[in-house]
Prior knowledge:
By secondary structure, chain A is α/β, with parallel strands linked by helices. Helices cover about 25% and strands about 25% of the residues of chain A.
Amino acid sequence: MRGTNQRTDAIIIGAGPCGLFAVFELGLLGLSAHLIDILDKPGGQCAELYPEKPIYDIPAWPVISGQELTDRLMEQIKPFEPVFHLGEMAESLGKTPDGMWQMTTDAGTVIQAPVVVIAAGGGSFVPKKPMLAEIDAYEGESVFYAVRRIESFRGKRIIIAGGGDSALDWTLNLQPVAERVTLVHHRDGFRAAPHSVARMKELAGAGAIDFVIGKLNGLVGDAPNLSGVAVTDSAGDRVLAADRFLAFFGLTMKLGPIAEFGLNFSENLIPVDTEKFETSVPGIFAIGDINNYPGKLKLILSGFHEAALMAQAAFQRCRPGERLRFQYTTSSTQLQQRLKVA
Amino acid sequence: MKLKVVDGAGSHHELDALPGWRVMEIIRDWDLPIKAECGGACACATCHVYVDDEWLDRLPQKDDEEVDQLAYLPDRRPNSRLSCQMLMSDELDGLKVTLAPGSMR
């Protein structure tokens, strides 16, 4: 759903556990939601940083992994049909003449809503860069941290650096289109699916790719055009000829454009009240790890509670003049209809 | 049991520590400005510290995951460790570390 103008009740920035549960709490009150997340999948930190790590403090789940928690939340919010804008960054926020918030993403998606919910955790995930001199000068032309279009790598000599799934997957996926793929990793061990590692070794054994165990030293060539990557391996210092360099060194979190939305920040956190979890700007709420208030605990369960109270206040903004009735899912036919179980 | 920490401003802190706690958890518990984004999963390398040389040999070995995380750090030094991968123990009473620039809030 890129590049189109869309209207909803709440725009949620961040599809981590708090953003996902906000969809549920808003949905129970009959409010619709769109979620924007820079990652290409829902789950936020739970899915990106520790999908397999056990979490022990989710009520009624003695133990649950980050990925399983995400999967369960996705199942729970399914009846409310949230719209996801994944792989997009919430870039700018403005107001329409009729007083709606208007959010534009870096992919050109435009969404209007009376309510914005910031559930951005530690900020947006951005790639970690290798420490190589002048690397910025090559970025976008010959150095990349993601593959947007495979075609743009056709016929190129590509150096891929890293030891995780992304490095392995792209080594395998680009091998058929590239003139030559060379994978560089500092050791002969990977944090990646064993079958990908086995396949990579097979290709290297057959001479279809090169696998270099070594250290990156620098980029060679007239920036932004790359001619090679300098490495040190058991053979000593040498330059591997290359047209493209792809580094997959994992992700880190940066606050990003939400810092420019006109909200108060204190030490990179957004102060909120504890009745509505509203920011210094009416109609913009902040829940989960990104907010702060006296007594704040950075726990997923606290974020769930914050989502529930935020939704009450969001209702008043989205349905002015309407009475909000407090109801239980165990007994209310209206809620059960919204949950699509009645 | 004590943990000594030097922060970004060069100030020295002597923190009460508990055996079995991760060094990162102690630093965070005392409100020193460490990022520790992933909460101890060895997934983000934002609890990076420099260990005082006299303590280096007394630390447990790095596992492969920690080696990988450290390999990608721009401000890595020979005495770099991830503080979430070091557990306090009697042998480490008095351990001294310095917060790395990239891991500070």
